[in-house]
Amino acid sequence: MIAPAVRHMVFERADGQPFAFIPGQFIQVHFSYADGQATKRSYSIGTVAADAASPIVQIEIAVSYVDGGAATELLGGLAVGGTVDASGPYGRFCLLPGDSNARYVLVATGTGITPYRAMLPLMRRLIAERGCRFELIQGARNEAELLYGDEFAAFAEATPGFGFHPCFSREPRAVPRAGDYSGRVQVAIEALKPDPATDVFYLCGNPDMVDQSFALLKDAGFAVSQIRREKYISSR
Q: Domain 6-90, what fold?
């Protein structure tokens, strides 16, 4: 458990083969309800690869607890060594090779932070190759729900060109740190002074956050192509 209601889980392919993916993509876990009806749930891959282009052996995901949720029952009760049926990778919420912008601003709430964790090696490479900058804004209600926060803070300290900005909407840290904000992620977005001439934004997580941030950026003059979105909806 990496938060009171979030479990970090690690899987490997049953055939022992490596798993190739583009940071930002997701897998789908397939299962059935008690009545036999087939369903599936999507989970972003959060594995930090050895470098930006390496296939991985372990597939890491973050699973939110949903009261009465079928996926919560399946994954929450899975023993070490247990198996699930899954497919993928899928998705296009990725850093695009043709970009020429000077700055990326990545915004997330909840488990929407997971794809950015997988992007860290690629961010390091892009900073070195292109000289671009990354700003990561992570929204949480309190410090206990700041998923992978220490990892992002350590990456920021070790990587010039990467900034980390936690936003606490309900309760600030007992010992505040540089870069912390009180309030929702929009507070940090505005503080970073979004500029359509230089920035590309990524929004991932709660649909309300994504919609509100999208509207803020549109009002600031951003084109739709400069705002890349992925919404996380908790299903029962």
A: Elongation Factor Tu (Ef-tu); domain 3 (2.40.30)
